């Protein structure tokens, strides 16, 4: 067991040679690899462990877990400390050396750390896994690699895969794969003209592709579904608030085939996939708020995009203004519908008023008759009393 001082000394040597840590891992003796505060990835560790514990259907110490693009290995190490058999794959040696240091310090022999490109993932090379952690890597791959990568995950995963990362808010560009269309936006990974050494030292970025393709949530869902997953969920709890709101946590499950009993027609109906976008129409009671949010989000991502590609921004602005025209058309037709409804109600109210007046007149007449009758009765009593005298 190393003392705090020895740990600190070894760590300084590693950081000097390989650069800083990203994951904040507690190695015992009061030693944290980054700080004694909480970092973003710490909340993800909690979230991923909770998801797997809740959904894997088996105890953690019976699971085989794959941690893709594992960086300093925090997720894989956590699962290994719960007894799982773990493989961590990372493309940069400088990142994995630190994971190896953590593994050795923690005395774990149930986690294997491999320097490899995640695009080399295959069942033949790595075998099958109950759980795949795919955090912070899908959005670092370009097309067509990203498609093949998700397909490979579908091949090696027998239980569940956690896909955590940024998605594109806007379906700006389309890419074709195996006859299907996927939507998203390009993202520049390295500055133009970056040297191989600069790229290698860019510890959190892609390995060699100069840009990557961020899929929209809908396209990512379609891709997971076409890669053999039977359902996909978005996780909202435990709470994890990231720096950016375009980061999502999806859980894709490998389930068994099902035969529907109450709706047998669906058994022979081809699987449904998402279109480019969902309709921009919400329930009338909150349509205007919805349009504001959607347009606000797009404007936000447009501002970011403007720096990367002014040309594309112009195209998106045109699409956005089209959307506003659609929203205006919608509101015009909604106003027209309400106006007609108002006229209908107005004439209905007029009918009701007439009916009400007619009934009132009848009541008045009846009352008059009633009064006359009682007058007549009182008169006849009076007459008979007079006669009696
Ligand atoms: C943003 S970090 C995410 C790390 C970690 N999975 C997490 O969620 O905290 C991206 C990581 O992917 C690694 N990486 C990028 N492209 C890769 C590739 N093609 N193969 C293997 N690793 C890659 C980078 O070296 C880096 O460690």
From TrEMBL:
<protein>
    <submittedName>
        <fullName>Class I SAM-dependent methyltransferase</fullName>
    </submittedName>
</protein>
<keyword id="KW-0808">Transferase</keyword>
<dbReference type="GO" id="GO:0032259">
    <property type="term" value="P:methylation"/>
</dbReference>
<dbReference type="InterPro" id="IPR041698">
    <property type="entry name" value="Methyltransf_25"/>
</dbReference>
<keyword id="KW-0489">Methyltransferase</keyword>
<dbReference type="GO" id="GO:0008168">
    <property type="term" value="F:methyltransferase activity"/>
</dbReference>
<feature type="domain" description="Methyltransferase">
    <location>
        <begin position="65"/>
        <end position="156"/>
    </location>
</feature>
<dbReference type="InterPro" id="IPR029063">
    <property type="entry name" value="SAM-dependent_MTases_sf"/>
</dbReference>
<dbReference type="Pfam" id="PF13649">
    <property type="entry name" value="Methyltransf_25"/>
</dbReference>
